[in-house]
Amino acid sequence: MHYPAGINKAQKKDINYGNRGMTLENDLNETNNYYLIHDIAVIYKKPTPITINKVDYKSRNDAVIREARFKIPSTTDYNGIYKGRYVDFEAKETRSKTSFPLSNIHEHQITHLKKVFLHGGIAFIIVRFICFNETYYLNVTDLLFFLDNNSRKSIPYSFFKEKGHLILDKYNPRVDYIAVIDKLFF
Predict the structure, then answer these.
(1) Can you give the pTM of this predicted structure?
(2) How far is the C-alpha of 39 from the C-alpha of 33, rounded, in Å?
(3) Architecture of domain 20-185 in CATH?
């Protein structure tokens, strides 16, 4: 901020990472609700397993969790069934214009997706590039191929454009990833 008499004071920006990925998550929750209501698929967001350590009980109906810990590393964000096939995927957002940082997805999640695929399930990640307002479906086989053949710490945006499947935003369903599954598997 610039003040009179040449005094400069830097303004501190508070960054809140608490709701990162919530826009994509909300869109996917609406999409899954649409699929459920229209009897297309049964896919749910998995809750994160936590252990509650401290709770403030202001009143019987107004309890506030003050401290909690992750019980175990969770697997992926969503799972369910579509046309008799098990579906499992992880959803992430990135603000990067050049790549998707692999630090955004954990090794145990990749291992889980690989196991789902090896057991005949449909496994993938959905990545939204916020700056381009583009959402991509990337099959676990393409993800594993990239990881096996690269030492990079991120997946280039160009890889998603080449190997991924662009999911066009619609009114309903909002993020129609089932259209991609139909194209690839049915």
Answers:
(1) 0.79
(2) 10
(3) 3-Layer(aba) Sandwich (3.40)
